[in-house]
Amino acid sequence: MMVMMVMMIFGDDGDDDDDDDLGGFTYSLFHIRTKSEDEAIVSKGQFKAIHEKLDQLQLASKASSSKAYLKEIVESLFEHITKVHAANAAKMNVAVSETADVCKSTTEKVDKLITKTTTFMESYRTTYNNKTASANEALRNLGAMFKTEKINLTEKVKVLDLELQQSEKQVKDLLSERVVVRSCIMDVTGLLSDIIETMDSMISITVRKDLAKKLSPVFTMLYRLQGVSPQLSDPKQGGEGGSNVEPPKVPIKSIINKEPKGKENLIEDEPIIDDDEDEELVDAELKSRKARDVELNETQRIVKEAEEKRKGR
Question: Where is region (Disordered) located (predicted)?
Fold first, then answer.
């Protein structure tokens, strides 16, 4: 409506006087934005064109005959343009404020995300370094423990090997002693049997019986040591039906061959049963036991030293 009024005033060809007053003034249509274009942004060129139109209107108003009416129209048009400009400026300010708020919020979120990522990476790096150091320390301790255990096991193997050698030596010594004892038992048994079964008339049946009775515990002990059951019987006169001593299964090595003496000399020079011989046997057994005790003590000492060395390490 406003456009039509302006055209009626300035763009109508019916009045020649007005054409003379306006001179060479020409008017071009000014496009006023509709409601559908309220959201559009006014450019600088459009503002410049508006100012030029206003200047032209102001110049035309000076030459017009109806200045009051033209002034009212121009003021109304200027007021409308000012309102539109103010509304557009307000919308631009709101849009700029919203954009600034969005940018600020996005920047804060990005800063928080970067801060969290940096904190996580630092924490991860610290944890990784600590765990790596702990794992390396555990591996070093494990290696040292294995090394110490290997040394201890090596020492134990050496000690056990030494104990095994000592045990084998003791077994060999015991076997040798057993062979010697059995040989001595067979020799003594043979000699005593020869003495009891002798046909010498100088030894009466009473003496032989008494001798067999006294030697019976000796035979029992000897046969028990040899692992044979004793079988003795009373001798008769002249050795007939003498003591039934079971001969040993192993051939007897007679001491007479080693020390050749007559039976009479054995009977006359040395007593058949003497306490000194028992004492000698006891002394020999004690010496053998002492030797074994010494070997056992030596083995225990070696084991103890090895354990002390292991504990010291």
Answer: 230-313
Tokens of 219: 């035979």
- For the chain, where are the alpha helices, taking DSSP H only? 2-10, 16-22, 44-63, 67-196, 205-226, 255-258, 263-269, 275-312
Max Cα-Cα span within the chain: 206
Contact 155, 310 (CB under 8 A): yes
**Is residue 67 a contact partner of residue 16, using CB atoms and an 8 Å limit?**
no
- Per-residue pLDDT for 98 more than 70? yes
As a whole number of angstroms, the distance between CA 218 and CA 273 comes to 9
Distance of CA 145 to the CA centre of its chain: 12
Q: What is the pLDDT of residues 213-251, one digit of tens each?
A: 766 776 676 666 655 555 544 444 444 444 444 444 433
pLDDT in tens, 137-169: 999 999 999 999 999 999 999 999 999 999 898
Closest alpha carbon to 40 in 7, 88, 76: 88
Of the candidates 37, 36, 39, 47, the residue with the CA atom closest to the CA atom of residue 82: 47
pTM of the model: 0.30
Tokens of 224: 């028990």
CB 44 within 8 A of CB 53: no
